[in-house]
């Protein structure tokens, strides 16, 4: 087996005396894509990333067995990851007064906190305030793409034109036809595995080889077919056939490590922004990357009010710097980009940059999750064990609610992510009664016979769902932090009730015994799919950006991350973030060459 192990490009000298064509803030999915598109069009680009450039393979150690780790994957003593109860009962800032040396978000608790301790932020340094919110942040080159769950889905006109469908909220200023060519480009450049299903509400991608469904999943797929519902192999942002144009990534060898930890793949079969986008962009000679650079203000020209660069602090030395550029592109993630806009007050933009509408920080939306169901496939009990976890994902059941039907209790819909079969640690050991020999036999006999699925539902955007700057609390670098004003509404709660009921019905109809249901709605933020704080639209009075993610107020400012999304859909957002960033940056490069920006 030959694995690709090409060293990342060497670190570069950063010349802050020159004016770059563009400065990009953030290096995750959005920033990486902006860098790829602009540098391939010949623009000279500086990327500022707040976090470190990590030796990521050494962090992820995808093939390390639990017994090869001194603490079976746990972080050293003194580290703590937040629990559901802490997020629910206490109020942020959650690390305030904690006796632990380091406090991390709940993702660290998914077995293997040692592997993400340098990727996730330490909540002690990065507080936030307001209503309960489980905010997961990754500060390092590549951001959250280093550990993302890689479910890569498209949106459809049920999402882009949701208001036309059910009357709520706003339509996007674009339709699926506008984005489709860019989804195709993302698929072909980064690789995605899956199966075509021809669904109008979940458009197909340009798929590479899919992973195989196992016995329980095929059984459920066949049963769902009878009612017109679909179960499809996980659409994974993973290259399964390889990418000839990218020397930093290997194809998936199905080693099974994906399911052991909070994501991450040390041979980069899973898309991550550094190997997928940033290193190839550096190879063009047009991209300079400066890690450890915390942007805290977009600077504007006093006369024109246009963006002229970015003020940042070196995270290690705390020294202040300025980066000059003809165009500023924010890609710091939905909430951090909103924070930067709000921090960038000036006499020309007293309400924050690009905020003449008063919509920056508002219309915040995401996905509601928690409800789920587990079933026992009786035919598999006591059967020989099989290797099921050598694949990058399980299955996906796309949205089926409020497409042709109208549910009485809620609008919009949800999809299920699920998994079945054998895993390294047998499922449901903790729920198995008994002890001694009979207990061990029960665990062995039942291992691999379970199927579980959990739903992700669309949270409606509302103007009152917003973030602003806390007037008193600052982060470890003295920068004001975000304050949340955000809670689920009845629509989400009613949808969550339906998730449990339909999950149960689906398994029962397939002849799978339901052995557990979860009706608990997890804390706001748990989905890690935050969206909508600088939405796009045609009307500058009710939106922050135009259809090319360009500020209505400041034409040489773009915000290319999920903050531009008008509504959340129920599909995971990262592939859409990248398709939109590609579209906007291509448009920007054209306008730039014409001298229009
Ligand atoms: C465990 C996990 C599972 C996930 N699963 C999925 C999934 O299955 N499917 C899916 O679609 N999505 C998933 N996501 C979400 C996905 O990772 C995000 O949608 C995606 O990474 C967003 O890209 P981004 O560029 O907007 O933000 P990020 O990836 O967060 O990148 C933002 C970058 O900006 C940097 N930054 C922030 N502030 C500043 C500043 N002031 N100055 C300089 N730099 C700054 C950060 O350090 C970071 O590197 C998951 C996320 C996690 C953590
Ligand atoms: S299953 Fe594939 S994508 Fe997942 S860690 Fe292994 S090689 Fe990487």
Q: What name does CATH use for the topology of the largest domain?
A: FAD/NAD(P)-binding domain
Number of helices: 12
Helicity, as a percent range: 10-25%
The beta-strand count equals 18
- The CATH architecture term of the largest domain is 3-Layer(bba) Sandwich
- Secondary-structure-based class equals alpha/beta
N-to-C series of helices and strands: EHEHEHEEHHHHEHEEEEHEEEHEEEHEEH
**What does the radius of gyration come to?**
23 Å
Strand content: 15-25%
Number of domains: 2
Bound ligands, named by name, code or SMILES: flavin-adenine dinucleotide, iron/sulfur cluster
Q: Give the CA-based shape.
A: globular
CATH-level-4 superfamily name of the largest domain: FAD/NAD(P)-binding domain
End-to-end Cα distance, whole Å, is: 49 Å
CATH class type of the largest domain = Alpha Beta
Please tell me the overall pLDDT. 95
Residue runs with pLDDT of under 50 for 5 or more positions: none
> What profile does the largest beta sheet have?
7 strands, mixed
Describe this structure in words.
By secondary structure, the chain is of the alpha/beta class. The chain is built from twelve helices and 18 strands. The protein has helices at 29-40, 56-60, 84-89, 157-160, 162-166, 176-190, 215-225, 273-283, 334-343, 436-446, 490-509, 574-594; strands at residues 19-25, 45-48, 79-81, 102-104, 129-130, 232-233, 287-290, 293-300, 307-314, 320-330, 367-376, 395-397, 414-420, 450-458, 466-474, 480-485, 513-518, 557-559. Strands 1, 2, 7, 8, 9, 10 and 18 form a seven-stranded mixed β-sheet that branches. Strands 6-12-13-14-11-17 form a six-stranded antiparallel β-sheet, covered by helices on one side. Strand 8 and strand 9 form a beta hairpin. Helix 1 (29-40) packs parallel to helix 8. The N and C termini lie far apart (49 Å). Flavin-adenine dinucleotide binds at residues 25-31, 48-51, 107, 136, 138-139, 143-145, 147-151, 262-263, 293-295, 331-333, 336, 340, 528-529, 561-562, 572-574, 577.
